[in-house]
Each structure stands twice: as structure tokens, then as C-alpha cells.
Fold each of these.
Amino acid sequence: MQKKIGRQTMRLSRPPAIVASACIGGKQEQEGPLAGWFDELSGDGFFGEKTWEKAESAMQKRALSRALEKGKLAPGDIDFVFAGDLLNQCIGSSFSLRHFGIPFYGLYGACSTMGEGLSLAALLLDGGFGVTAAAMTSSHFCTAERQYRMPVPYGSQRTPTAQWTATAAGCTILQAGGKGPAVTHVTCGKIVDKGITDANNMGAAMAPAAYDTLSAFFQDTGTGPDDYDLIATGDLGQLGHEILCDLFAGDGVTLGDNCTDCGLLLYDRQNQDMHCGGSGCGCSASVFNGYLLAQMREKGWKKLLFAPTGALLSPTSSFQGESIPGICHAVLIEAQS
Amino acid sequence: MQKKIGRQTMRLSRPPAIVASACIGGKQEQEGPLAGWFDELSGDGFFGEKTWEKAESAMQKRALSRALEKGKLAPGDIDFVFAGDLLNQCIGSSFSLRHFGIPFYGLYGACSTMGEGLSLAALLLDGGFGVTAAAMTSSHFCTAERQYRMPVPYGSQRTPTAQWTATAAGCTILQAGGKGPAVTHVTCGKIVDKGITDANNMGAAMAPAAYDTLSAFFQDTGTGPDDYDLIATGDLGQLGHEILCDLFAGDGVTLGDNCTDCGLLLYDRQNQDMHCGGSGCGCSASVFNGYLLAQMREKGWKKLLFAPTGALLSPTSSFQGESIPGICHAVLIEAQS
């Protein structure tokens, strides 16, 4: 069987199954419409720790621990874990994983990390390099604001195009030969940079990457948007989602009601004042590992196309006048009959 | 064939070959003993750019371009590239790859990145997901000093245990069924944290991780240090290398003259005043892609065990009193007869 189909897409020959998943969230997530799908929610955002960075690390620890419990697995059962986050040097991931003793490959894919981790975990299992693997990521509103923008107590005004970084973590456990929805295709994204320089408009910066990866996926697989029960991009938010629809419309392709964005799902944008919606690695990670996988089971969906997007900028690159490179990694999850 | 052997090691069934490699360096590298093995050296460290961060990105661009040239390949021939670096949000990698149009998986493994990228590229090729892949990383003395310590013009005193972050980049191109030394085994590291908190003593923080991964490799493969022409750890430097030897001595295992460290090779420590030696992702990446692969060819080595180490700290984690988690990813390169 040809595993590589087209330039960017890989078809798995023995699709590993999602045997467990977990998600953890904070205060805004607790007040949002998806609260019921979280495994744990912390009202104060500190998760029992003294700093926000340690809290973010604690979230990943809890997400992995809960996923292991739900899958009736021990850390020693996990062949390898892929994890990363938005913090400088990805300390959310490395400090959370310190005491688990699981072989670890660290990632940096910004808000595309959940898609990147799922992709690589699935590919290695399909390649026969292990039986069970985990993929994990997180973000925290307060660590992200402090690092990318201003410390929260400064009370910065947010622009209308701004999105709200989720305080959330998600973890997926995949198993070769396991029972559950399986990862059947993976599309590796290319960096796309259309010259957007406004760091408060990530949706616009990332939409062309989502368009690029989804177009490649449709072309490589010979399918179209209507072939999927749901297409969920990462954190494009309202404006980015509209741009994505416009880009496809230019090709004569209509993205219908079966295409949404995790940043549009996590919060009640009217009543929670979230401007363009949610963002951050933890947004798509928690929406996927909670709500989306549950919907897939409950509604009997056959095919879920999950395509988180990341903006690969840093405060330094923006200070130096650089535009914002985007990337999107897509993963097709299919129900096993 | 069983691909997973032991807890951490994977044996490749169709080992992909290293068909091309390239390395780029700056002023100190130009004045060091390995200068002759670099493809390009820039005396001013700016590589034609206006900022150090852009210079670091330019180094990766040059490393990939030179490796492609040497392998007579075009960007469109590369199925995927794995890259990462030390800069916040890994902008050295993402900005360098913006214009190549190669499917990209971003990594964060600190100074273990060359080992991590080689591992994952080899595993995906062995899994049949592509034919040709690249792994790449970089570091830059001035970007690292500014980000982790003090801006260079401040003129900080360096401690005796300090290492010198290399201004260098390295790129390896692997090909399934290609000619050249091949990646036959990969050992995925676990995070090891023995409580070292001195961010100026990275060697001590990372040595236990090197010990852990190399021990796992020897155990999983049923071999010992004497079975290899050379074992080259990443950037432990003088002190870390001594600690590694001590840790093995505690098990009754002697690491002999065939065990060295890339941080001990890159500079003339007596005359270049490099204290404990070189460090940074670019150190092991340039030593491996230049000097070590050349030695392997020229000296007819059969087996080179390359084991770069990373310290997964950030300035924020150190400010918050945290110790330094280390990781080491090992890759066995064998000559193909």
C-alpha cells in the first residue's frame, strides 16, 4: 500500500485508535458552553500552584494522568509522548513530564501542536515503533498574556480582532490495534506567510495556512468538504474562519455548516466577551479531546477532520518588523466499524 | 522484525541513509580546530542580516540550501523537514523555512534537537511515509546570550562551568534506500532531573540524561561502549563529560577514548577561552554534519553513536526556583557495506 499520497498527505496502513482522552480547563472554560465535556476545571487558574507557569505545567500533568486513568494505563505502558506548548522553551510540557518516565519527543508547533502531536504519534505507531503513544499540549491565558503581550494586571485593551488564549490542556492516547475512532490520514503542513504583521489578528495570519493544508488534504485524498461529518480547524476565530471560507469560495468550494473552528466553540462569545473567539494550544486540544470526540461517539459521526493552526511568531520577530508565518497540521479521524 | 527493542530503543528495518549534510558557522567556529569541515563561515556573525535572530534564521537557510546542493536535490524533493532551535517560539527554524515550501514538523528539544530531528526523520522514512527527509537546527551565541543571560554588550563575567553557545547550524538529509551511512537505531530519551539549579552549569544538569539514554541504548541493544568506533554526546562540555564517565564508572563501565563530546571538539579550549567547551543546538549539529560524518567516511568507521543532550529550562523556570530537566536522544549511524 502506498502510504504517501500526494505531496503532503500520509495514509496509515494500520490506523491506531484513540483509546482515551482527557481535557482540563480554567475559569472561562468553566463558564463556557463546553464545560460539561471537561474532565477537570479550576476556578482560579492556579491548579494548586504558586505561579501561572507552574499551573500550566500542572494542567498537562492532570490531563495526562486523567487520560491514563480513563484508558486504564500506567505511564510505563506509554511507548512515547509528544508534547509542546506556547511557553518559551516549552516548559509547560517538559516540567509536566519530568516525573512520568515516559520517552519524550518535544514539539513546537504553536497552536497547531495538538495536530502535530497526534500526527507524529499516529505515524510512529503505524510504522510499528510502539503500541501506545500520547500527544499532549496546553496553554494558559495568564502565561500567554505575560509572555506575548502585557502582564494581566496592566489591564490592556483588547482589539476587536483579538482572541482569548484558553486556559486548558488536552491529552490523547493512541493505541495500535485498539478500539475507538482511528487516525487514518495525516497531512503535514507547510509554512504559509501572506505578510500579516498584526500580532492581534492571528486568525488572519493563520487562515491561509489552514486553506493550504485543507486544500492539499482534499486534493491528495480526492475528497471535498462534504465528505466529512465535521471539519474543525484550530484557532482561527471568527475573522480567520470567514477568511478561510472566502479563500475556498475563490476556488468555487463552499465550506458549509459542517465546517467550524475550535475557537468558535469553546466560549459563548456574546456573553463571555471573547471578541473573535478562543485560541492557544489548549483551545483546540481541549475542544478535540472533550467535546469533539464525545460528539463523534454520541452522534455516530464517521469522519472528523481536525486541523489545528499555529502562528509561528515570537514577540522578538514582531519587534523586528517580521510578518507572521502560519502552519496547519490536519488529522483525519474515522470511526471504526 | 521487532522494531521496538526494550523500553526506549527502536531498530529500523530499512535504515535510511545520510545522503547529504551541511554546516554553517560564525567567527569562533572559524577560529576553531574544526573550521575546515564547515561549508560556510561568517566572520561577523550577521550572515548579511541586520539582527542576530535574522542571522540565525539565515544560517539555517544556508545549511538547508547547501545540503540540498550537495545532495543534488530541490526543496520539492524533500518529503518533510524536522527543525527547531533555542530561540523563543523557535523562530530560527520557522523563519528559515518560510520560503522553501517543504512540509514541516517543528521541534523543541533544546540542544538535543539534532538527535531528535534525525530520530524522527529516520523513523518516518523507515515507516514508509516518504523517501527523503531533512533534519536541521541552529544556535547563535548572541541570540542565546540575550535571551538566556544578558545582552552581549553588558560584558557579563562567565563562570568556570559556563559553556560557549555555538554560532552554527547543521542540516542532514536522509533518504530511504540511499547510499551512505545509515540510521539503524534510535533511542528516545526520557526527562531526567537530578535537581541541579545552576543555569551556568548545563553540563552537570544534562549528564544524568546522557547516562540514562546511553544506558538504555546499551541495555536495549545488548552492547557496550567498546562496540562503537565513536560515541559523541551532545554538549556536556568538560565537566558534564567527566560526570558522565563517573556515572558509568559507578556501574563498572569504562568510557574510554572512543567517547567524547561535541562541546569538547568544536573549539580549542586552551586558546579560545571557552571554559567548559561549546554548547547550543548548533554545536552538536555542526560537529556531526561536518567533522564527524567526514571522519566516519575517511577513517572507515563502522559505528558512530551520536547522543545530543538538551537542558529543558527557561529563564522563567530558573527565576521561579526550578531545577533543570535534561534529555538526550541517541541515534546510531552505521556504515553500509
Amino acid sequence: MGNELLTGDTLDTNGRFLTRAVESLGLAPRFKHVAGDREEDVILVLRDAASRADVVFVTGGLGPTEDDLTRKSVARAFDRRLIFHPELLPPIRDYFARAGQEMPPDNERQALLPSGAKPIPNPLGTAPGFILEDGRTSVIVLPGVPREMRGMYEASVHSYLASRFRGGETWEVRTVRTTGVPESKVNELLGNLLDLSRNPQVGLTASDLGVDLRIRARAGSRDAASGMIDALVEDARARLGPAVYSEAGEGLEQVAGRLLAERRKTLAIAESCTGGLVGARVTSVPGSSAYFERGIVSYSNESKEALLGVPRSILAAHGAVSPETARAMAEGIGRSAGTDFGLSVTGIAGPTGGTAGKPVGLVYIALAVRDGETRVEEHRFPGDREMVRARSAQAALDLLRRHLTGC
Amino acid sequence: MGNELLTGDTLDTNGRFLTRAVESLGLAPRFKHVAGDREEDVILVLRDAASRADVVFVTGGLGPTEDDLTRKSVARAFDRRLIFHPELLPPIRDYFARAGQEMPPDNERQALLPSGAKPIPNPLGTAPGFILEDGRTSVIVLPGVPREMRGMYEASVHSYLASRFRGGETWEVRTVRTTGVPESKVNELLGNLLDLSRNPQVGLTASDLGVDLRIRARAGSRDAASGMIDALVEDARARLGPAVYSEAGEGLEQVAGRLLAERRKTLAIAESCTGGLVGARVTSVPGSSAYFERGIVSYSNESKEALLGVPRSILAAHGAVSPETARAMAEGIGRSAGTDFGLSVTGIAGPTGGTAGKPVGLVYIALAVRDGETRVEEHRFPGDREMVRARSAQAALDLLRRHLTGC
């Protein structure tokens, strides 16, 4: 519910969260309807949704103002009266009291619920949610603020749905992530594993960073479902080889970071075309200061010489975007930082700067290993500046990951 | 249309694009419906939408396989037959020929259109779109791939809608961006400018990076509407002061980058808690190599000393997160890079590392100016690691922007 979702100013991450949250119960979404801040429109989509599904999630519109239509509209859509619940006020008052404020009178509205609705406590905000059972349909109403919505789902809604919908069967879900292999090739390698009639079922999602396998297994117990997924993942790994970097839906920065931490190895990074993206991803992981020592964004040739010790002769003979420069950058940063690994990226992100011999999308990545060989890779990425930079950062982290896992 | 939108694996950026694209025609979205890859569900939402709107945009499901249901479903929803259009095949064949391939036989399906539909050429892909007029409703069917969808909208659909819907009035739209002032305060400062009955209308959208004003004006001519927006923006600027950083919907990295380029000034960056985010944003702008010289991610204290010349005595006396260290980092990077500006960030992003005196979210930002004073700012950001880092990067770019504009 809400104009900002309807216009797309806010993208619907709540829908994604709820879809994944109910997967383990064997529930899957059938429709999504978005209405703006008009009562008649909200009522229309509520009735559409309830007539077509066993569970309807409603998010947003539970705030304290007149514009927040959800309580009123749910009551009208299902022919209920709004009942004032005085017992819902103290937690709202407490929420304001913790911030040293008094509850504004408008917030009293948040203690109104359609008759027959059961409240859902909101420990992280003011608006309680509620569950309204209308015939065979459960209408579950939650705030739009993602943090509040998630907290309430996890604390109250999941167990409600589990008791109502979980039959003898359990679902388990796992996300296996791959990079460096195009979707069409993943499709071909997985072949019959992708048949929709199979259990476990495998769905593919492709992004600039790689292809994810979303695996859902149905079985009589959690262990059985989990075992079925284990077997499928083993099969998929055999087909996909080292392209698989996570079986738990993690990012490459988490995977590579954990490998570094476990082996007590340290890392320094020299970036050119990615401009700090690789460092930003590595340091997005809490605790990364244990293994990440420093990064250098050497955008100018002068900084490549001064900070990384790239010889002027290499820059002059081969150019800033060359395997030789990538190697010198990686070895230079590793040496000066005194780390176990030096990782470098240099390339042409575009839109300008490309030539026939060195087109936009040409990127060199190098990994210098203390007391070891330096590995250099050439990539030619399609797409615009943003895509080339994102893929370059992913490829750099993947080179480190493959080295650490010996592939 | 499509399972990946229904589950949220793909977020709907097409809806946002189309909403903004039709704003200048005075069209606004009323509903959004998403159905997965089931024909009966697609037909249901097509009929719902067509019964409630003058224009229905349908995106996705135009591919060459059996799963691509849109052509078939639109035909059934509006009681049309599918007609084969041989004249649509050559452009599809040409598309494959440019990649040195032959058109697979499946792609012949893409030359089928519901009877009465007018094709929309697709210069960037294989699937043609189409427009079907059913009574008073225009059903406009486009591919789901954003690049193709946008190209087709701009080349063909906008002029069609303009001829059908633009009456005597024209709409103009502008996005004014602000940072550093919370939404409640922006609300208060704008006051009556936010009345929904006004023309121009102003809507607010808040994110981690600031609050945007979306301004829509309706008038007899483009110039008149534009003039009304100019007047409103002037009023808003007077109320909001230096918080306004763009009147054209740009990011701070674009605004600050343009100011640097215009004045032929150069920049170097020293980052700690942001780990490269500021550099990544600055270098996301094409042509940033004209003003960005280098960046250093000094995660360890050793690197702050070795690369930035931060005196050990300052680190020992005040700690890495202190106004003194921020100042020394900014001055050190500016000096060693020989740039006009040195910009630094140091802070505690969390979740660990905070103390009572220096809590998570405490961030210092400094700007060293060649032959000038160094400015240092203290911030206390709420939120998790990701939010603290994003806000820190935004605040750093904003400090640079405010210096360059003299506020």
C-alpha cells in the first residue's frame, strides 16, 4: 500500500522478504497488487487478493495520520467495524517515552483494529499489525517499514502460518551462488536438474554478479529435506565446478573474507577503474579490519608510480591498462603494505577511453602472493560503465577466492 | 509479468521508469498488478487493469519460448486471435545476423500479434512490442528487459501517448535533492508548499542519503509550467538553504564532480570506515579522471602513518576516530597527492568497536584546502554498518560540495 510503492520511488523489498520467509512453509506468491493512497483503490485490491489466495500480506499504511488508510480500508473491505483496543496504547506510549517524548494524540488511531482481528505486537515501532481471518483467508497486516515488518514477521507471523499451513511436510530452501559462467551455460550444465517437476526444485536468477541457484526441497522432516538439498548441491557442484562460491547465499566479500580470517592472511588492494569498489565491498563485512590492511585507488599514472612503484617504463611501453601494469600494481601494493596478498584491477570502464585494440570493457586483474607466483587475468566485460565496474570488482574478489580454495 | 518480479528476485525498476516517463503527460499510476508465469493469472490481472485505467502498460513475457505468455494472454484477455505478421521477421533475423547467428525457429513466435494490435519496433532486442486499443483503453505491451523497454518507450510510445492524451495542458516535472536535513524538518520548513491541492504539487521521498522533492507543475505551455517550477524551487531553496544540492535529480558525486571540473580543481581522498565508498562514488562519473587523482583506504593505523603521514602521537593521543586524525588524514592526502583538495573520513561503522565515549555511528569528516583552512565536521549517524557507511560517504561529498559553492 502507498503512493511511493506505486510510483516505484520505493522498490518493494518487503515482497521479496515475505516470499523467501514463507518458502519453508511451502507457500508461494501468486499475485502482487499495489494501490496508492486512495481508499477505494485499497479496498478493490484487498478484495481481489482475498478472493484469490489463502494468505494475503498487506504492508504499509498503518501510520498515525489520516493518509494511513489500511486499518479503515481492511475494515470496509471485509465488512468489519473498527474497534478501539485500549490495551494497545501502553506499548505505543512506551515507545515515545523511550525517546523522551509524549505520544501525540494522533497515534491513538493505531489502537484501532477491525472487529475479529488479532493484534501483532511491534517491538521496533509504534504501529501494531494484525491478523484477520475472513473465511478461509488469513489477511496479515504489517507496517511498511522493512525493519519493523521483518521483526514482526519473525516474532509472531511465522509461527502463526506454520500452525495453520504446515501439513506433514517441511520445506527447506538454500541459495547456491556462482560467478563467471553465463546463465545460458549454467542452464546447459544443470540440464535435467532444472525440471520444474523435480523435488528439489531449482530456480535460476541472473544478475551482473553471476547466477544464483534457488533450491527448494519438500520432505517429511527438516533433516530429510536438508539431505535432499545436500545431494543436489553435490551434483550441481560437480557440473558447475569452481564457479560455485557459496552454498549459503553469501557475497564473495564474505566468502573471501572468511577464508582470509581462517588462514590469518592479510590483503591490500590497488584499484584503478573500480575506483574503490573492491575496497568498499571488502570493508562492508564486519571484522574486515582483521585482514584488510589498506587500499589504494591509483587513478592517475603518477599515483601508480608514486604509491605502487609501477615503473614508468611499463606504463610507457604497455599502457595503464595492460597485464604488465596489473601485475606491477598487485606486486607493488602487496610489497609496500607487507601483506600476504596484493590484489589489483585496471581497465577501461567507459563510456570513453576505448580504442580498437583496447576496447571499453577490457579489464586486467592480478593477484600477487607473498613468496609465490602472481596470477594475471584478462576479462572483456559487456555493458555500461556501472556494469563493467561491478563485474570487475566481482572478478577480482573471485580471483582471490579461487586462489584461497586452490582452484 | 513474470515469476522473478512476483518473488521480488527482480525489483520492478520498469514501473518507476514508466511512472516518471508519463508524468509530463499528466498521467499517474493507479494500480500495479504482478502475475507470475501462469496464463490464467496473467489474464485475470490484464482484465482487472484494463477495466480500471485508460492506459495499461504490460512488461515482460515476450520472449521466444512457451513460458512467454504475454502475447497469448493479451489475445485471450481481450478476445482477439493471434495473427502472424511476416513483416516482423526480418528485423529479428537481422538482430541474430549481427551477432553472426541464425534465428532459432522458436523466435518466429515473436511475429505473432493479437488482431488489431500495432507493432512497436525493438531496435535493441528481438521481441517487438505492440499497442492494442480495446474500447477506451490503450494496452501497451513492452519487453521486460529495461534497456529494450526504455528504448521503445522513448522511440515510439511517448509520442503515441502524447497524441492521445495531451490536451490543452502540459506537465513539467523536476527533482530537487537535499541532504543533511531529516524528513520531519523538511516537512516543517516546506509547510504549505506541500499542500496536495497546490499546483505545482510537491512530493517528498526520503532515503539514507537525504530527502528528494518531486515537483510537478501543470500549465498551458511547457514554458509556463517550467516557470512555475522555477518560482517554487526558488521558494523551497530560501526555506531549505544549503541543504539543496541538485535541481536536476543528480547525485552528489555528479554535482561535486562538475564543480571540480568547471574550476579545474583536483581531489584526493583518504578513507577509513567507508573503505573506498567515497572513491567508488566519485569515479562512477564518466570523466572523473580529469579531477580525481588518487584515493587511499587507510584501514590500519600503520597505513595512516605510512601513506598519509598521520603522526603516531596524534593516533596515540586522540585515537584513529578523532577530529585530529581526520584533519591529519585530509591534509596528508592533499599534500602527498599535490591536489587542491584532500577529503577524509574516519569513523566507527559498527557493529563492534564502539565505546561509551565513541559510539557506533560517530564519524569525522575533514576537507583540506590548498593554501586554506581545513574544515572538520563531526557526525553521529543512526543505523547499521551499511547505513553509517552510506551516510558518511554522502556527508563527505556534501562537505566538498558546500565548500565549492561557498556555503
